[in-house]
Backbone:
């Protein structure tokens, strides 16, 4: 396997990992602060084994790292990951941009009726 | 991660489409900080043809192409790319126009954000500095 094919396979794995809404939610939580697996389950309607399975997928995609801490495992956003927190922050901004832009579009379109 | 917005405009579909595309420079909130040029913001254009450019021209005359038009189907749909300077892969803006009584329903989808993250991760050095620069270009959070 060539280097570029390996890297494209890694990208595929990243996309697959991010395609699942539960995993996106988990990675957003982990992006805010490191989490123990047990704490990640709290307040969620999914079982701990299911969370463990999702965490395994995220780890294999290189999005999160797992560090043993006492009897628990601490999950954090991998330093080499796409930086979902930053992507999310940017997307929020663009989302607000579209709110403002569409309002401006509507206002202009409705007051302009000759050309 | 996909941005979805809908708005109803009290104009017939042909007019709504024309104002959105041809007249974008007359309503886009460039001066409210929504420009890649920051203080150099001046004009913005969306060319009405497939392969046309969605671009800004700054006060000093420099042009920045945000993306190319992928689909141009007046008066019902336009799809164009949106790419910050340091991204490898563009995101995509898909705008659909549907006649709704005497007005028009405009549905906008801005997608492809996963691609941006993954592409940026490939060159992390450029990504960290570059991304922050892009963020800094936008007005207050």
Residues:
């Amino acid at each position: 396997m060539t280097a570029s094919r390996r890297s494209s396979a890694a990208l595929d794995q990243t996309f697959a990992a991010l395609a699942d809404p539960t995993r996106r939610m988990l990675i957003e939580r982990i992006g805010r602060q490191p989490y123990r697996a047990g704490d990640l389950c709290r307040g969620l309607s999914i079982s701990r084994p299911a969370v463990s399975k999702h965490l395994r997928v995220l780890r294999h995609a290189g999005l999160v790292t797992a560090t043993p801490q006492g009897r628990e495992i601490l999950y954090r956003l991998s330093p080499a990951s796409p930086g979902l927190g930053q992507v999310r922050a940017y997307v929020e901004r663009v989302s607000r941009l579209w709110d403002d832009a569409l309002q401006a579009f509507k206002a202009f379109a409705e007051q302009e009726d000759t050309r | 991660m996909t941005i979805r917005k809908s708005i109803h405009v009290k104009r017939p579909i042909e007019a709504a489409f024309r104002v959105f595309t041809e007249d974008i420079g007359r309503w886009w909130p460039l001066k409210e900080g929504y420009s890649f040029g920051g203080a150099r913001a001046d004009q913005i254009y969306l060319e009405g043809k497939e392969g046309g450019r969605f671009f800004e021209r700054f006060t000093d005359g420099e042009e920045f192409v945000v993306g190319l038009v992928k689909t141009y189907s007046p008066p019902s749909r336009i799809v164009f790319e949106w790419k910050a300077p340091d991204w490898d892969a563009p995101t995509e803006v898909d705008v659909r126009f549907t006649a709704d009584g005497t007005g028009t329903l405009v549905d906008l989808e801005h997608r492809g954000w996963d691609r941006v993250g993954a592409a940026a991760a490939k060159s992390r050095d450029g990504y960290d500095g570059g991304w922050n620069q892009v963020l800094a270009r936008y007005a207050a959070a």
Q: What stands out?
A: The first helix of chain B runs from residue 13 to 21.
